[in-house]
Amino acid sequence: MKLEKKRILIADPSKDLLHHITHHTAAHDYHIETALNGQACLEKIKTFQPDLIILELLLPELHGIEIIRILNTSPQLHKIAVIISSAQAMIQNYHAALKAGAIYFLEKPFKLEFLFALIERYFAGKLHPDPFSGKESKALEGEHQYIPRMHSPNTYIKFWGTRGSNPVSGHEYIRYGGNTSCLEVRYGDDLIIIDAGTGIRPLGEILSIPKAKAINLFISHTHWDHITGFPFFQPIYKPDCQICIWAPIGFEKTAKELFTDMLAYAYFPVRLDDIAAKITFKEMQEGNPIEMGSLTINTHYAYHPGATLCFKIKTPEKTFGYVTDNEVLMGYHGDPNALEKDHPLLASLESMIKFFKDCDFLIHEAQYTPKEYQTKVGWGHSSISNAAVLIKHAQIKEWIITHHDPKHSDDDLQKKHQLQKDTLEQAHIHCHVRMAYDGLVIPL
Questions:
Q1: Domain with 222 in it
Q2: Inside any domain, residue 418
């Protein structure tokens, strides 16, 4: 008398797995049906009445544990055995499956020979749960573990101050910070600092740890918000430190004269001549690149009162621009879309557009909203919409906005950020925009 084949239902969302199981040579010894989701599984259980179910834990439409619960509450179905299979080899899943009534927890991926051996053991009355293997956690400790290569900790830029005009403090300035302009640029052992706003004070405390011997400080221009932190820069009080201050050629006084005036006894208890560090001054001129190890610093005049420079820094990997004070398209209040390539108003921007065109990203101010700019023409700072014109024609793909207005609280800057994104979208400018904040680090 020929014995009837044992009935096995395999419920799994993987069509490939079901195909491989049903076409395996050992499958011929059994009557096998399949289901791809929970509802189909329940229907097959009722019509097929399997002796054993191989059940995926995370079966679509109905969780494997829920299917076991339904079986347990049915007088007709509660004796059907269930092997739970899962790639989520977690001890919580293991215990949940066995507690629910599964006779075995089968970890994926598995070899088909192992599966059919389990089935054979079950029908022979010899299948019992194996102890939890912890296969997943062991694999993490093995030789195949992937560990991503971290960026060099000594190759980055860091914003130490992102406010314009004057520093601010208070609970409404916590997110973006309140220090005025200061940027640290590091590439391996090469270090430059751009601007000496109040952000240079905390930077100086960090620099005192490795005992920096030579520091190159670049000043975009000598307005108060870009130099007022200098007297509180710790390295200037170290006798073994050499500080070279690079500044644009002034219209009225040299940078040395201005720093000397700032450090008069009437303003500060330490005069420039009394500073312990060796201070030297060098003048910068537009179009004359400066080499600092792996860094090349290029400059371009900005649209701002007095002698003011923009910077473009080249590293072996990336090129970026840094512009804190620049009134693009002074007096223009129109739609950025109206200024196409050959528009006469763009003639004055042509040189600057060319200067920044090869930048991987541009740090550029946009201190005013278009509405605010109505009363700020000639103050030396751009509106969001006018700065967007430079972004568009210089083909900048990433724009980081700095030199935030001191009147703009964290909430104001959040709203302004959205306005900047809206402006770019409406002008059909494909550029990622974000706001700089005190402490922001960008790997180079």
A1: 155-443
A2: yes
Over residues 259-285, the pLDDT tens digits come to: 888 888 888 888 988 888 999 999 988
Average predicted confidence (pLDDT) for the chain: 91
Better-predicted residue by pLDDT, 34 or 145: 34
Q: With b meaning 16 or more CB within 10 Å and e meaning fewer, what string describes 212-251? A: beebbbbbbbbbebbbbbbbbbbbbbbeebebbbbbbebe
Residues 397 and 360: beta-carbon distance below 8 Å? yes
pTM for this prediction: 0.76
Q: Does 191 map to a domain?
A: yes
Percent of the chain having pLDDT more than 90? 79
Q: Can you tell me the distance from the alpha carbon of 313 to that of 30, in angstroms, rounded to the nearest whole number?
A: 71
Q: Quickly count: other Cβ atoms within 10 Å of residue 350's Cβ.
A: 10
Q: Which two tokens stand for residue 186?
A: 């590091």
Q: How far is Cα 193 from Cα 161, in angstroms, rounded to an integer? A: 12
* Judgement on whether residues 165 and 131 belong to the same structural domain of the protein: no
Residue 226 is classified by DSSP as G
Choosing from 140, 172, 195, the residue where a domain stops is 140
Q: Which H helix or E strand runs over 354?
A: helix 350-356
State the distance between the two ends of the chain, measured CA to CA, in whole angstroms: 78
